[in-house]
């Protein structure tokens, strides 16, 4: 599955199961760009890739919350991945995409939460063998090592692999959103924005 960003081929593309297996059965990863840097996410977590459409902003939320979108009747929060890493929010361009992923809950009995990741671009699906993924170094990463599960060697490049369970921990995200609401002196209960953003209701 090759994804051309900013094109009809890339927008709305779903990761079909048959497309998720490499000829050598190596795990599949979606390579993308965030803040002009390459990253990868496990393809098995990717539900859909969309062009950037209409987003409803949420007041009194951190910069990493771009807003919510209507995805076939479901309210899905959209997070700016660069801002989630503690960096500046991304500008929207012709190649910007929203990657819909499933975020695992801390309680394994709770249903997985679909979340949109706002990124600079998506590129392609690559097969990366487990032996080609190295541990995250303690120094030298451009983002907090806690956001990463490893560093992959792909096509003679080092590509950080995003740890989605840590980056999209819904309990932690709700805490950050509620804390931001408190800092801003919101007049309404602080759990409102966190509930809307992270529960999709």
Characterise the protein shown here.
This protein is an alpha+beta fold and 201 residues long. Helices cover 15% and strands 35% of the residues. It is built from 4 helices and 12 strands, in the order ββββββαββββββααα. The chain has helices at 81-84, 164-167, 170-183, 191-199; strands spanning 13-14, 28-34, 37-42, 46-51, 65-71, 74-80, 97-103, 113-119, 121-127, 133-134, 148-154, 157-162. The strands form 3 sheets. A 6-stranded mixed beta sheet has the order 1-4-7-8-6-5. Strands 3-2-9 form a 3-stranded antiparallel beta sheet, with no helix packed on it. Strands 10-11-12 form a 3-stranded antiparallel beta sheet. α3 packs antiparallel against α4 (191-199). The radius of gyration is 17 Å and the shape is globular. The protein starts with 12 loop residues before the first strand and ends with a helix. Mean pLDDT is 82; it is low at 4-10, 16-23 and 185-196.
């Amino acid at each position: 599955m090759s994804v051309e960003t900013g094109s009809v081929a890339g927008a709305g593309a779903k990761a079909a199961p048959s497309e998720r297996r490499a000829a050598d059965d190596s795990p599949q990863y979606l390579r993308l760009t965030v803040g002009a840097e390459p990253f990868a996410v496990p393809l098995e977590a990717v539900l859909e890739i969309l062009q950037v459409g209409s987003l409803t902003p949420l007041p009194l939320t951190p910069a990493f919350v771009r807003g919510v979108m209507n995805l076939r009747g479901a309210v899905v929060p959209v997070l700016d991945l660069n801002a989630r890493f503690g960096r500046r929010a991304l500008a929207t361009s012709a190649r910007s995409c929203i990657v819909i992923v499933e975020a695992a809950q801390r309680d394994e009995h709770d249903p997985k939460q679909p979340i949109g990741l706002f990124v600079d671009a998506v590129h392609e699906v690559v097969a990366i063998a487990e032996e080609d993924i190295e541990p995250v170094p303690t120094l030298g990463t451009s983002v907090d090592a806690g956001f990463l599960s490893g560093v992959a060697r792909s096509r003679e490049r080092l590509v950080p692999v995003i740890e989605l369970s840590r980056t999209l921990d819904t309990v932690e995200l709700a805490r950050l959103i509620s804390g931001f609401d408190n800092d801003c002196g919101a007049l309404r209960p602080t759990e409102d924005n966190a509930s809307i953003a992270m529960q999709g209701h």
